[in-house]
Specification:
- With 131 residues, the chain is an alpha+beta fold.
- It folds into two domains: 9-54, no CATH class; 71-127, Probable gtpase engc, domain 3 (Ribonucleotide Reductase Protein R1, domain 1, Orthogonal Bundle), CATH 1.10.40.
- The chain is 24% helix and 8% strand.
- The protein has a two-stranded antiparallel ribbon.
- A hairpin with a 2-residue loop joins strand 1 (42-47) and strand 2 (50-54).
- The protein is elongated, with a radius of gyration of 21 Å.
Amino acid sequence: MVGHSGVGKSTLLNTLIPGLDLIAGLVNPKTGKGRHTTTAAWLIRPEPDLELIDTPGMRSFSLWGIGARDLEQSYAEFRRYLGECRFTDCKHVGEPGCAIRAGVEAGAIARRRYESFRKLRDELEEEGAWV
């Protein structure tokens, strides 16, 4: 289980696996947010062929070794459209003649995946990860 601190990873595992009894903090009554309580990763084997790992929460999560320019290569459904845009420096946002946006409009690329790409690309640009 991976996620931000205090989102309920341990609580969820305790609910799914009766008797597990992982330490889980209470929600802060003032903020309504969970509290960081897990301090080490725990491997849990509730069934012979099932392994779960409860990890401490993270403050942030980002892509390693992928910059905003490289991100489009990470989306398999984009690959057949790469190099087909009108402009070689197309960011696939609002440029005319964008092949990827045309793929989205034609239904060949899921709009949800395209929106995910745009969000990640914006985050990478904000971080200055223009590799």
